[in-house]
Amino acid sequence: MKQLVLEDGTVFVGEGFGSERETVGEIVFNTGMTGYQEVISDPSYCGQLVTFTYPLVGNYGINRDDFETVNPAVLGVIVKEHCEHPSNFRSEETLDEFLKVKKIPGISGIDTRKLTKIIRQHGTMKAMISSTDRPVEEVLRIIQDTALSTNQVKEVSTVKPYVVPGRGKRIVLMDFGMKHGILREFTKRHCHVTVVPYHTSADEIIRLKPDGVMLSNGPGDPKDVPEAIQTIRKLIGQVPIFGICLGHQLIALASGADTSKLKFGHRGANQPVKDLAANRTYMTSQNHGYAVDENSLASTNLKLTQVSLNDNTVEGLKHTYHSVFSVQYHPESSPGPEDTGHLFDEFLTNMEEAQVKTKEDISCLNVQI
Amino acid sequence: MPKRTDLTKILVIGSGPIVIGQAAEFDYSGTQACQSLKEEGYEVILANSNPATIMTDHTFADQVYMEPLTLEFLKKIIRKETPDAILPTLGGQTGLNLAVELHESGILDQYRVELLGTPLEAIQRAEDREKFRSLMHQLNQPVPESEIVSSVDQALTFAEEIGYPVIVRPAYTMGGAGGGMCDNESQLRETARNGLALSPVSQCLIEKNIAGFKEVEYEVMRDKRDNKIVVCNMENFDPVGIHTGDSIVVAPSQTLSDREYHMLRNASLEIIQALEIEGGCNVQLALDPDSFQYYVIEVNPRVSRSSALASKATGYPIAKIAAKIAVGLTLDEIKNPITETTYACFEPALDYVVTKIPRWPFDKFAKGNRTLGTQMKATGEIMSIGRSLEESLLKGVRSLEGETEEFYLPSAVQLTNEELNKRLKKADDERIFLLAEALRRSYSLEDLHELTRIDFFFLHKLNRIIDLEKQILREGLTSGLLVKAKRMGFSDAQIARVANTTASEVMNERRGSDIRPVYKMVDTCAGEFASETPYFYSSYEDENESAASDNKKVLVIGSGPIRIGQGVEFDYATVHSVLALKEMGYEAIIMNNNPETVSTDFSVSDKLYFEPLTLEDVMNVIDLEQPEGVIVQFGGQTAINLVDSLTAQGVKILGTTMDAINQTEDRDLFEQLLNKLEIAKPGGESVTSEEEAYAAAEKIGYPLVVRPSYVLGGRAMAIVYSHEELESYLETNVTVHNGHPILIDKYMTGMEIEVDAISDGEDVFIPGIMEHIERAGVHSGDSMAVYPTQRLTKELEQQCIDATAKIARELNMKGLINIQFVVYKGTAYVLEVNPRASRTVPFLSKITGVPMARLATQVIMGETLKAHGYSSGVAAKPNGVYVKVPVFSFEKLRSVDTTLGPEMKSTGEVIGYDQTLEKALYKGMTSAGLKIPTQGSVLLTVADKDKKEMLEIARTFYELGFQLFATEGTAGVIEEAHIPVESVGKVGSDELDVIDLIQNGKVHVVVNTLNKGMRARSDGFRIRREAVENGIACLTSLDTARSIVDVINAMSFSARAITPMEGVNA
After folding, report:
1. B345 at the A interface (CB within 8 A)?
2. Residue B714: band (very low, low, confident or very high) from pLDDT cuts 50, 70, 90
3. Distances (CA, A) of B559 to B50, B571, B738, B855
4. Contact assignment for A338 to B261 by CB distance below 8 Å
5. pLDDT averaged over chain B?
6. Catalytic pick from A245, A266, A315, A319?
7. CATH number given to B931-1051
8. Are B546 and B589 in contact (CB under 8 A)?
9. Any CB–CB contact under 8 A between A116 and chain B?
10. Is residue A4 predicted with pLDDT exceeding 80?
């Protein structure tokens, strides 16, 4: 038997599965009905205990294809029920087996709807998955004494740069905790991608002669990665930039806007986002606890392009002068709807246009000379 | 995009009568659509011939036309109303087909009526097989190898090419009518011929067999700005091969990974976009369990049965939103009615599992072909919600109200393994129970998968249920196991069976240990946003979200799944009762489990519990809510059946009491009651042995009505005319044994009269008295009913009124009461008293303007009729004549005998009204789909006892210019009367036989009455079935035949030579 103890003292007793490890993290919930393998392996969940609101998790097992990273960074998995007999032609192992191997604890058999409502009402908070042998008071003390990590990006970013070669556009992808899905979108478009660590400097990036720079998703508070903010500030105007999720927040901070923490975040595959220019709404996949403050945009060169239809928070930005745009959600999906995959094409178009413009600028210069 | 201001008046087309494949779901969607349009300020004109629906109430539309849903009548409506637009996408296949016909007739152009929702082009591209396939090719969406054929030979040739088995799908038919899987040439020959006949365009699709694939459905919506969402996806428990309407379905999909989910989602969205549908659309797909290969099977460019299910499963009201989209609003500006804080442009997230199980009519049609295939056979369905698949499924099983209340079918125990295997492989309506039986016998999951192709995921879940049963058997019912069983969804009855105790023992133990369910909210968003929706389901978990208020409140029990004998009429009454309670200041709580209906729309009641309707489930809600009492009068037999056990639990039954109910339902008490009140009833006895039966028969005298006492709704009821017939009845239909007496009554051949009344104990107000066209002996639900009465004398009417008042007063009835009489030799005899809302409540309410269910509710809650301005006696009759005509679904039910008798067979009803009886009948019959020929030929083949009576009918047909055909005996009688007739051979004779005649399309009406004896596969049976398969009216009651003749007569002029001296010469 295991227990899940929340910072506010609420205790849920359930059955343990996965690893026996005891972990303290920030508790969040995800409302997606499919995609648990992608969620669990999404590095953005670094430092978090993720609750699945859909009660049956593990139905189609774990396959070899749908990982978003090699080593998941999630600290715990909370479900109503995990499936012991998955059924799908790609299934290689059960969720339980997978979590055991990856040393991720799981707890099942609890009222996850009640838990979700607590998180919704009180906001995300610290929590611990432990054995029921440990007295609740002790667990609460451990929770109190454990400070949540502020260097999650460092934990999940690549240590060394690496190349995913292609014959198309050259992209430098700053890895703040990149999901494989983003890379997949570029390889699908035959791009040549150089994935670099989060702390790579602007000069180093420019030396790679990229056609565009992609800022990936990642875990935690964007303000915890000041070095990246500096880098991005230098890159803006030099090269087309596209930011997703944390990358989007970093662009905002680099442009002088502000970010703040949401009460319980957006995590799910059904988040409607309205594109203000097109006057259309898209279903998006989201996973973020922080958001850009709309009011803080006034003094910047960023234009609000997309908003959440649910709570009006900032979902998309575009630079007024430079080829920079970003979205808070995940156009690469995996998991979730694939309705906004065209943003990657847009990014490619931006790069194309930038090249044409550069040529024009050069020819302009030539004429002047 | 704001709503359109260039439209003011919109015509909504309803779906007409309830038939298999098109049931109450379209009342739900139509009602929502009308409300939604009115909300936006449009004038709504509604055309629907089904009087039993909520949507045809005047409160839901500005003008209601309960006229036949045919081109002829819709044109009349359009000319009269000149609407700006027409919305056909909420009226099922009927609405869509009519839209096409209207367009083709040119009237839409002529009157500048715009088609809203789905463009005509899209209807054709989705419905026309060839156009659909070419669209799919264009979109690069895979479809199974197939070919459109318009002849049987073409079908055979193509099948040779792709190999058997193949599937036949006729074009433009609903519920897959006429389709089927064929394993060989002879099957294909028959199915293709039948399918071609049923298809209005004489086309069938012959398709490669992909049986065994996963069947997955997506409910998608789109608006004109191209916002697109998936409201819900669903996975069929039964793989491809069984019509989705006959499949157990779960939502959301269970075995699809995110990649598969979105691959199919993308396909669905691409299709709705290509079709440019503004509204809802249903896409059915087949997915290979072993690869990413998928096929698009079918697209319904309209709101469908699945969308009603999806609406209830998610809380997202598809029809309501679809109507708003149709008038120009976009998804991202329509509020989500559940959360009221977010918008309709999102995809609902479920945090529970939904199960739908079809409800089949084979309790009525025991001899029907029960095999499931591509032709839908279910009349209704139930939905259940749980926090695990097991819980959801088990709740579903006990919502079915079939032979069993839990996951155990006693009759399955008798089957040999061989029989079990055969039935598992073939798939019939009881397969879920057979799977349980097989698992109890420890079949391996591999074997079961081999037999059924059902996904291992589901088989494992079933096995978990049976494993827990086995554990209880092994270890006894420990408190730990009790909790575990409840958490898995076991009912007290299931636990009791396994632990060899009684359900009430289990209930007591459970209550003693405070093991009770909590109630969770259906909120569309998995708890992400705060919602106030009063829509709940039970589960054995921690947190209860349904706070019981301190308001004075009443629980109304719904009527469960739509089945023969308990249709949408009861939902109508339930909804009105709930509305009345709300109006009176009560908190109205409803419990029901039918996803198709208006009553389970969470916006109707103050609180909706989507739950099974067993004692256990009802008591759990009562324990929590502590209502003042329970209203059972409107939930049909489902609710009435709970009266005894609820009373035993100390629950107050509001209105007519248990005692009074029992006095009408218990035969002996009933007889005592009528004797005491000096009211006539047909003589009869109850017997427990064959000897007693014959003795009683002799004493009472033939003909007799015989039936077992332990079944309801006229099941296994028959009329016997002789000793031989009684013998054969006793042999084939019922086993006489102690404890289950057989009831034998005098069969009185006479006019049947039906009275609906409201009683407050003092006053007994009768809104209307109806007479049946068919004499007593034909179930009242299958008879044509006429209001006001045409043949009833003042004196007899008074007899009926007096008897009704006496019974109602004696029993101190409070609420509705329905009494059936037979008029025999100048006296009205009471046949049956129903202490509850009857099938005719909506019909009469609409005609007379008396809000019967509402008034009854007010009376039930203690108000007097006088206070509402009603007093004893019968209401004034309106002008005109109104008929209720039953509608059957025989073409969907192979091997079911169509002859009318004491057992109800109809699935729905329509109304016809006009100034004369003949005109009203014409409209009613037309609405019911009867083709009334004004010329042509008629085939007569009647039983000996009917030959004399038939003669008049034959004569009129002849005088109307019809050519007469008759079988030998019948022809002889006709010839003797000097009426020209052509004699045709009996079935199987060398010459041209009756079957050839029907198949060749040579006759336009068949009059056939049941030959004596209960032979199921008699010639008569073949004749009747053949008529059904060929779409020819087959009249099995001489009364029906006579009324049709009258109608034809009124419509045409006979050719007759003048004989001035006729009277003198005679």
Report:
1. yes
2. low
3. 19, 7, 32, 19
4. no
5. 92
6. A245
7. 3.40.50.1380
8. no
9. yes
10. yes
Same domain, A122 and A208: no
State yes or no: is A245 an active-site residue: yes
What is the Cα–Cα distance from A248 to A229, expressed in whole angstroms?
A: 11
Mean pLDDT within A68-77: 96
Considering the domain architecture, whether residues A144 and A166 belong to the same structural domain is answered as no
For residue B227, the cross-strand partners are: none
Q: DSSP for B121-134?
A: HHHHHHHSHHHHHH
Radius of gyration, CA atoms only, chain B? 28
Which residues of A are less than 8 Å from B387 in CB distance?
Answer: 55, 80, 113
Residues A221 and A157 in one domain: yes
Which DSSP state fits B395?
H
State the DSSP code for B1017. Answer: T
A-facing residues of B in 166-225 (CB < 8 A) are: 225
Angle, alpha carbons B63-B69-B75 (nearest 5°):
70
Partner residues linked to A99 by β-bridges: none
Residues 195-254 of A with CB under 8 A from B: none
- Classify residue A321: in a domain, yes or no: yes
Higher pLDDT, B589 or B531: B589
d(CA B312, CA B533): 12
How far apart, in whole angstroms, are the C-alpha atoms of residue B248 and residue B250?
Answer: 7
Q: What angle do CA A301, A306, A309 make, to 5 degrees?
A: 145
- How crowded is residue B646: how many other Cβ atoms within 10 Å of its Cβ? 23
Count how many domains chain A has: 2
Evaluate whether the domain defined by B9-122 bears CATH number 3.50.4.10.
no
- Sheet holding B43-47: strands in order across? B63-65, B43-47, B9-13, B85-87, B114-115
B355-512 adopts what CATH topology? Carbamoyl Phosphate Synthetase; Chain A, domain 4 (1.10.1030)
CATH topology of domain B751-878: D-amino Acid Aminotransferase; Chain A, domain 1 (3.30.470)
Distance, CA of B713 to CA of B638 (rounded, Å): 12
Do B355-512 and B518-525+533-654 come out as alike in CATH topology? no
Measure Cα distances from A98 to A56, A91, A203 in Å.
16, 11, 41
Report chain B residues whose CB lies below 8 A from the CB of A283. 229-230, 346-347
- Domain end residue (candidates: A148, A168, A202): A148
Is residue B162 within 8 A of residue B145, CB to CB? The reply is yes
pLDDT tens-place string over residues B111-134: 999 999 999 999 999 988 789 989
Q: What's the ipTM?
A: 0.97
Tokens of B969: 């005996």
- The whole-number pLDDT of residue B999 equals 83
Give, as one character, the DSSP assignment of residue B81.
H
Cβ-contact A223, A201 below 8 angstroms:
no
Per residue in A87-138, pLDDT (tens digit) is 999 999 999 999 999 999 999 999 999 999 999 999 999 999 999 999 999 9
How far is residue B661's CA from residue B667's CA, in Å, rounded to a whole number? 12
> In B106-184, which residue ranges form alpha helices assigned H by DSSP?
107-110, 120-127, 129-138, 152-162
State which residues form the domain around A257.
Answer: 153-357
